[in-house]
Amino acid sequence: MLNISIANIIYTIINLLILFFLMKKFLFGRVDQILGERASEIEAAKKSAEQIREESQAKIDDYNAKFAEIERDRDRLMSEAREMSGREYDEVIANARKEAARIVEDAKKAAQVEARRERDNQATQLENLVLDAARKISSAKHDEESDRKLYDEFIRMGEQEDV
Amino acid sequence: MDIKGKLHELLLEDKVAIHLNIANGFFDVNKSVVLTWILLAVLAVLILFLTSGMRVHQPGKRQLFVEYATQWLRGIVGGILGEEAIGYRDFITTILVFIGGANLMGLFGIVPPTMDLNVTIAVAAVAIVMVEAAGIRALGLKGWFKGFAKPMAVITPMNILELAIRPLSLCMRLFGNILGATVIMELIRMAVPIVVPLVFSLYFDIFDGLIQAYVFVFLTSLYIREAVE
Question: What ipTM does the predicted assembly reach?
Fold first, then answer.
């Protein structure tokens, strides 16, 4: 039990080494292979998932950027339109005012012209009346009665003219 | 049979199993070596059975067990070894399985191979060679020699002595524990042949045997860790 045998020590060392190679090859080797394959599969799956995530994130960013651009465009167009419509409104109002002023002016002018023409007309009629009366007086015989008749006629004509 | 006779039988029996008629019996094969052959054969069959038909997907219960057990044992050893010495993990795990398996042979009424001093010397020699080799590999021959003068020059003789003390303590602790356990078990069997030996066998053959395997591996791993730092 206690005597030492070099040969048996060496045998045991050889046994231990054999066991090591056995375990290395058939236990650790196989387990490591399986675990490694599994790990690489998981890694690959993770990588592809990460890639998909990145791609979708890029798409979302892209969409967001586009959306922002569209919103900016919309705002710009809206403000432009608002500005333009405001300007047009002002223009229309200004035009309308101008037009109204012109119409009023025209109307005033027309009224003045009409008034002047009326006055001229009346003056002409009066002239004619006077001329007529004068002619009648000059052509007819003058007596008191015919003079009165003439005055009356004259007045009546004048009244008729006035109406 | 009296106690003296029992001890005589256990300690002084002729342990040669195979006698080779060369070099005056120098190459005789001990019973313990034959037992380790049996252990090796059993482990080989077990490993081949457990690892046959392993699959990456949908592993069976057997595969799950072997994967878990392997990683668990490696985890125990790797945790002690630390990051720098992780390369020695598989070999140390092999020593753990070897000593554990040898110690558990007592369960089947076989005298454990670790009760032969030659076996424990062999394992301790391998362990200490590994420790020093790890030191040389990590620090270089110069660094390894310088390591003897650390942490201070005064303890250099102690450090050199440790070269012999460490393997001696490793092999003697293992040998002594298993020898003691076996002797006590034999004595208990002599005193009370039924029931009681069963209970004590649980402690001495399973618990103590595995604890000793763990202690051996734990110390070896610590030495390696220390050597590579």
Answer: 0.86
